[in-house]
TrEMBL record:
Residues 314-404 form the RGS domain. Residues 37-112 form the DEP domain. The keyword Transport does not apply. PROSITE patterns: DEP (PS50186), RGS (PS50132). Keywords: Signal transduction inhibitor. The keyword Methyltransferase does not apply. One of its GO terms (biological process) is regulation of G protein-coupled receptor signaling pathway. This is Regulator of G-protein signaling 7-like. GO terms for cellular component: cytoplasm; neuron projection; plasma membrane. Residues 380-392 have a biased composition (Polar residues). Residues 380-409 are annotated as: Disordered.
Length: 409
């Protein structure tokens, strides 16, 4: 909501500590030479059919002046330099929002230092005037609507401010008002450029941060000719700080508590009907009631509706349930692909075997599933097969860890 008149930082509205100030000063020195009355670019008033265009010069005038006074031989280089200066708002085309230099008869005007490197007051002023050249472009209308939503509570004050500025502008001379209108438009073309154009006023956050908070390195001086080391206490303190920092990081949760709580709530809601503390089980527990229906269902190996619903939670639920494993194994046998599940179950069972039974059980699993000519051979990649071959030479509970497939596959 800041107005151009409040830009009292420096000649171009950027604080002196800005990383771009060196470039701005060089460009402003060149602009001052261009505006010199004797050796600068000739500024004239051009007569059109029904009106006059005051204080303008052509793009070809700029290119010729640069080649003559800046020791630039290549015309393309002069155009490039001029386009960069136009992009920073030091001069601008009087009839176009796109800030670039053309080597032709296009008319340009120098920007007043008042506007050298908010928007809402300016756009409001534009809407109050019924001139075709001051109509808002599409992107400006969208920006005005967005600002109106953002400053809804203060919009009456903004509108009054714009109205007051518009009244002051009407009291100015017609030619002066025309020049100021174009200069103000050029100012906002720099600071709120047309979509797709270069924005030269964006500050590099990294550069600004480095200049405001320079990184200071500590020099540790060691003397090889003495036995004392002056930097030892500092290094000890630094290492102690790092140790404390990393110890604190070990205890820090990497998940947000909101996400953890959300996951716990989701899990609890999903499994609440299977928790006997919250939901009465059906059929009832035969250990605390006289109903033995639960034992009868277990003996019949029939899958109830609630049990099948739990299998739908995930594949792990199927494998944890003996009835689910049995039903899944029957399905795989009908598809002639049950060996992978039987191998997976055998490996899981191996991990729970007493240590004295492990070597013999490892050999049995190898002979049944992985040995050459095995009756229930499974498909494993060569790398896993070679590693498993090495593992069974020293058989352990995890000898088949590399060859164990995922049952989901």
């Amino acid at each position: 909501m800041a107005q151009p008149s409040s830009c009292a930082q420096s000649s171009n509205g950027v604080a002196d500590e800005s990383p771009n100030m060196l470039v701005y000063r060089k460009m402003e020195d060149t602009i001052a030479r261009m505006q010199d009355e004797k050796s600068g670019i000739p500024i004239r008033t051009v007569k059109s059919f029904l009106s006059k265009i005051p204080s303008v010069f052509s793009g070809s005038d700029i290119v010729q002046w640069m080649q003559k006074n800046l020791n630039i031989e290549d015309q393309v280089e002069a155009l490039h330099l001029g386009t960069l200066m136009a992009a920073h708002g030091y001069f601008f085309p009087i009839s176009d929002h796109v800030l670039m230099l053309k080597d032709d008869g296009t008319f340009y005007r120098f920007q007043t230092p008042y506007f050298w490197p908010s928007n809402s007051v300016y756009l409001c002023k534009r809407t109050m005037q019924n001139k075709a050249r001051l109509e808002l472009a599409d992107y400006e209308a969208e920006s005005l609507a967005r600002l109106q939503r953002a400053f809804a509570r203060k919009w009456e004050f903004i509108f009054m401010q714009a109205e007051a500025q518009a009244k002051v502008d009407k009291k100015r001379d017609k030619i002066e008002r025309k020049i100021l209108d174009s200069q103000e438009r050029a100012f906002w073309d720099v600071h709120r450029p047309v979509p797709g154009c270069v924005n030269t006023t964006e500050a590099d956050i990294k550069k600004s941060s480095r200049m405001k908070q320079p990184h200071k390195t500590r020099k540790v001086i060691t003397h090889t000719h003495t036995h004392t080391f002056t930097g030892f206490p500092q290094i000890c303190a630094c290492l102690l700080f790092q140790i404390q920092h990393w110890q604190a990081q070990l205890d820090r949760h990497r998940l947000k508590m909101s996400k953890v709580a959300e996951s716990l709530l989701s899990f609890s809601e999903q499994y609440i009907e299977y928790d006997p503390f919250f939901t009465t089980p059906e059929p009832s527990n035969p250990w605390i009631s006289d109903d033995v229906t639960s034992w009868d269902l277990e003996a019949s190996k029939e899958a109830g509706q609630q049990r099948v619903k739990r299998w739908g939670f995930g594949f792990d639920e199927v494998l944890k349930d003996p009835v689910g494993r049995e039903q899944f194994l029957k399905f795989l046998e009908s598809e002639f692909s049950s060996e992978n599940l039987r191998f997976w179950l055998a490996v899981q069972e191996l991990k729970k075997r007493p240590i004295r039974e492990v070597p013999s059980r490892v050999q049995e699993i190898w002979d049944e599933f992985l040995a050459p000519g095995a009756p229930s051979a499974i498909n494993v990649d060569s790398r896993s097969y070679d590693k498993t071959t090495q593992n069974i030479k020293d058989p352990g509970r995890y000898a088949f860890q590399d060859a164990q497939p995922r049952p989901q596959k």
